[in-house]
Amino acid sequence: MTQVNIYVGNLNIGITGDDIREAFEKFGEVSSVSIVTDKESGELKEFGYVVMPNQNEADNAISSMNGKELKGCKLDVKEAPVY
Q: Which domain holds residue 15?
């Protein structure tokens, strides 16, 4: 089963992983959510990742959530490259 890694940018600094999970679960199963933090300061950066196990659900989430407002910020959502 292929996991789809989704980049979610322009996050509100006060957002939580639960906020993001709730928004993306409307489109299907979410395996994990991570918000990137600065290694030195521990402060949240303005982006994170959502992993979804179903490509069709992930594609729907990406097209539906890109440009949508969440907690006052317009999201930048796209499929993230896998390294």
A: 4-79
- Find the CATH number of the domain harbouring 30: 3.30.70.330
The token pair at 62 is 């990406």
Alpha helices (runs of H) in the chain, residue ranges in sequence order: 17-24, 55-65
Model confidence pLDDT, tens digit, residues 39-80: 888 887 899 999 999 999 999 999 999 999 999 999 999 999
What's the rounded Cα separation, in Å, for the pair 56 and 64? Answer: 12
Write the single-letter amino acid at 57: E
For residue 48, the 8-state DSSP code is E
